[in-house]
Amino acid sequence: MSQNKKKIHFAWWLLLGVALMAGLAKGGINGIGGLFLAPVTKDLGIGVGSLSLYFSISSIVTMIFLPIAGKIMAKYNIKVVLIIGIILQAGSFGLFGLMNSVWGWYILCIPMSIGAIFVCQMAAPVLINNWFKKHNGLAMGIMVASVGIFGAILQPMAGNLIASNGWRYTYFFLAILVLVIVIPTILLLIRWSPMSVGLQPLGNDEVKAEDQATHKVEAPKGVTAAIARKSSAFYSLFIFFFLITSIAAFGQYVAPFAISIGYDISFAGGAMGFYSIGILVGALSFGILSDKIGARNTAIFAMILGFIPFLILITVPTNPTMFRLALGVYGVVSASIGTLGPLLTTALFGNKEYSQIYSSAIIGLAVAGIIALPVYGYVAQLTGSYNSIPYAILVMLALNILLIINAFKGKKKIVEAGNWN
């Protein structure tokens, strides 16, 4: 017994695997797409709005595929699903480097988005919920922090590579790097559930699989997906996902925004490193805060904090130091998607049918991609400026505070109706 207590619970090894996978796939591929907008559009002679439509197509694919993603993950071998996912995502990203027409991005973003659903969106929160009964907020924060860590390394690297070797080489390099690291990580460290290795989730006593029948395991509590989807709490959460994703989507345009006001691509890549460091700080802070003061209060604090970077971008965008500071704080706020999104879902609806509820709620994320990402691009293309966007984001931050408050009022109604069990 004493020896077992000294062993590191496999949940922490799984978290390491999830962190490497999410950090490289999300921080190294999804998070860097915006750096390519300016050089690609300049080289190929196309508008930023036209190229950014591939973000919208990606979001449409995500919205269509999300409802069945949770079922696929639960039905098929998780390692096979994730390996196919990373090959689709990173492989398609690398092939962007061969394209000479905007249609290449429109076509390749389809398999890239399907792969990213599993690797970047669904796998981490579902696996962490499976493995962590306690320290859930901390684990979620560490996972999102990994995106910031790898982004802080890879964003400046990508900016310098684009400047020195060109955007085509940079697409190839990042894709190969991610595949070489993530595939072995999935094979070695990813497991679907504690039962598969004879354990219970972290926070329960560890038992051998053959002895589990003699132990009483507490059943997950919460509401069913059918009840959740009819509640005001769900609709508030859905719109929250839409708005917070729209706010974070501006991150894809930070590089062209920086270039439009006189900075170069190397500065933009370095500044995006501050954004990634902010994601790291926010992920860890929000995870710890949510464990101490709850997801509701932490989410409200995050939205209030979000006013700072956009006020800076409105008032002193040409000051390099303030620009970097704004991106750092903006990264902190953007971390709330990966950290607070899953935690708010659990706080509002419990764990009874978490994956079904979460996969439905984050359709709001996909809808935001369909609308916000191309809108930002076309606003810049038509007006020649990104200056109006920070004002719109300030309004969205204020609306999100109201939505969080309303969501927890909706939860209270669910509990009072006797639907939480």
Structure overview:
It contains 18 helices and no strands. The protein is mainly α and 421 residues long. It has a single domain (10-192, 220-414), classed as Growth Hormone, Chain: A (Up-down Bundle). It is globular. Mean pLDDT is 83; it is low at 206-215.
Q: Strand count, sense and closure of the main sheet? A: none
Low-confidence stretches: 206-215
Query: What amount of the residues lies in strands?
Result: under 5%
- Secondary structure class reads mainly alpha
Number of strands: 0
| Cα-to-Cα separation, first versus last residue | 34 Å
The name CATH uses for the topology is: Growth Hormone, Chain: A
How many structural domains are formed by the residues? 1
How are the secondary structure elements laid out?
Elements (H helix, E strand, L loop, with lengths): L1 H5 L3 H19 L8 H8 L3 H28 L2 H18 L6 H30 L4 H30 L1 H23 L35 H4 L3 H18 L4 H7 L4 H29 L1 H11 L1 H9 L4 H30 L4 H8 L1 H21 L5 H28 L5
Helix pairs in contact: 2-6, 2-7, 2-8, 4-6, 4-16, 4-17, 5-6, 5-8, 6-7, 7-8, 7-12, 7-15, 10-15, 10-17, 10-18, 11-12, 12-13, 12-15, 13-15, 13-18, 14-15, 14-18, 15-16
Key features of this structure:
mainly alpha; 18 helices; 421 residues; Growth Hormone, Chain: A; single chain
Brief account:
Keywords: Membrane, Transmembrane, Transmembrane helix, Transport. With 421 residues, this protein is mainly alpha-helical.
